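Example record

One chain of 127 residues, shown exactly as stored in the release files.
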Amino acid sequence: MQSIKTKLKVNNYQKTILAKHAGVASHAYNWGLATCITEYESNKKRLSAITLHKRLVREVKSENPWYYEVSKCAPQEALRDLERAFKNFLTIPKCGFPVFKKKGKKDSFYLEGSIKILRGNYIKLNR
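Predicted structure tokens for this chain:
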């Protein structure tokens, strides 16, 4: 697997789409963290990313139509990050408890398998 880090030159429309992806990812992460906290306090169980995603689709996506404006990968990857953070907290003594994401603070998201490099210096992100 290869990873490339690059700076993108985007127009206002593209900035809006990227901000929507970051917003959906952070919303999914924060919803998942709140759900994990509740579940862990009541049952001492750690939820997997797959379980969280199934609940997210069932409970959250239907109430928030803006989830459908972005790639499905953004919330999936955010929940995988949350699963990893919660697992690290429980197994590695130095790792702290996962914290909620704040808007405008290191906004980010991941897309997996939906990126195409086109002729020249163009990148296409599919939905």
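Notes: Residues 38 and 44 are 9 Å apart (CA to CA).
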